[in-house]
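Shift notes (night). Ran Guanine nucleotide-binding protein subunit beta-like protein while the centrifuge was going.
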Amino acid sequence: MCMSLAFLAPAGEGGGTDGSSSGQSGSSPGGPGSTEGAGGGPRYLVTGYEDGVAALWDVRNTGRPLGSARLHSEPVMCCDARPVAAKRPKGDAAASAAAGAAEGPAADPQAAAAPPASSPAPTWYDLITGSADDVVSCCSLRPAEAQPVRMAKQIKLREAGTADVRIRADGKLFACGCWDGRVRLYSLRKREPLAVLKYHRSQVTAVAFSPVTRTLATASRDTAVALWSVYIAGASHSTDA
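Came back to this:
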């Protein structure tokens, strides 16, 4: 039985891990390498099941999943995914500048002033899953590869049970709402703990980041909804993961 699911944002929706726009794919919707379905919506869907398995699907062909992996020993209760923007090699900009200088005065000034091409569409995704067990799983989704669901790291929790996970819009961190009443923040890139938010007196049932500010909202079985201003720059790691 499916317990959780999330669409993977198509190209141009959501940014990479640096918070920038992912750019356009340069291919037609639904075409090779495109992250869009035939109707222009999301092409990929990830589903989590009661046996701890997560599967990646192409919504254009639902006969069988592209791939799957067992991420938990208990049901997958929640999941969230975000595109990872492909990055050009660091030497590209310098090489282009050197080539322009070598051409000398004959170089086309309009070409030299042309803006850089947009970043390629994301083909990889970060996936975070929570479960009734005592780990949070950090995975890499690579739809075009033979093994599209890959475990990157499992984060051990003090207490079992994660009700909800959300990745912040800038792709820098993610939040886990846990059954012990705590909200745990982690670095998405390093997959390491950043902070533990303690307010709720009962199980945290939902977490949500504002898409335009650093505000985090959390809800709990204690009937309270809490608002947090989350800004973490160079924070030391929490000792309570």
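Residues 168-241 form one domain. The radius of gyration is 20 Å.
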